Amino acid sequence: PVSPPSPWLAQLQHDRQHFHLERDTECDIAVVGAGIAGVSTTYYLLKYTKAKIVLLDAGRIAHGATGRNAGQVVSYFERPLSDMAAAFGVEMAVEGQLLVESAWSQLEDIVRECHLTTPLYRCQGYAGYSNVQQIIEKLVEHEIRIKAGITEEPMLMKVDPQLMQQIPAHLHPFIVQVPHSTILKLLITNDPHFIAAHPALKGCMNSALFCEELVAWMVANHSNRLTVAEHLPM
Question: What is the pTM of this model?
């Protein structure tokens, strides 16, 4: 089936001149993929090294997953913090978590330093939980973060004595019990399966527009060290 048009891609400069690789070139580092990961990596390589960079993409800048997402900005590992702590130790796991979360300030730094106009909206969001195992897993992560000195908002859980009994007592201090209706209101849902919610910083941005604008800035300011090539054959 044909994918529906992306509202994010619709905002891009479709009449802009594309970047073509007219001849063979040499570089110190080749970055493959001009989505938000590749474009931001290129930016920091230019900022912190003297390397000559080539940024390559098989299609147009940010026209892959970056241009077809929901516009949501989040910062977290898909792997639970407790798993990473068990595998690598608490100190390294927490350090990695904080580095991921520092992406918020890094993103804002890029927007400010490069005078980008792509809007970045930050807001207070909530992650929803529908079973005890999910809640316990999140509370264990919460405990690790608190012990590492990271300020954390408590988890909000519906008032339910039986549910509370299923959660280890040492995790109870990280819970605030509220009416079930409060949980559903915060999550903007009527689904009664959701029994808990945890605050999480969220945001919204047209990441495709961000990439297009940042590439234009990098080309204008680092033309001596950056080559960009779109529409390369696979």
Answer: 0.81
Q: What is the DSSP letter of 204?
A: E
Q: How wide is the angle at C-alpha 45 spanned by C-alphas 26 and 57, nearest 5°?
A: 60
**Which residues are CB-neighbours of 22 under 8 A, at least 6 positions away?**
none
Beta 196-205 vs 72-73: how paired, if at all? antiparallel
> Which DSSP symbol is given to 202?
E
Q: Supply φ then ψ for residue 104, to 5 degrees.
A: -60, -50
φ, ψ at 33 (rounded to 5°): 110, 115
Give kind and range of the element (H or E) at residue 183.
helix 180-187
Run of H or E residues at 81: helix 81-88
**Contact (Cβ atoms closer than 8 angstroms) between residue 208 and residue 13:** no
The number of residues making up the chain comes to 234
Q: What is the pLDDT of residues 177-196, one digit of tens each?
A: 999 999 999 999 999 999 99
pLDDT (tens digit per residue) in 146-167: 988 888 899 999 999 999 999 9
Residues of the chain with pLDDT under 70: 1-4, 234
- Other Cβ atoms within 10 Å of 44 Cβ, number: 11
Q: Residue 62 region, left (φ>0) first, then alpha (ψ -120 to 50), else beta?
A: left
50: Cβ contacts below 8 Å, ≥ 6 apart: 225
Distance CA 54, CA 28 (A): 8
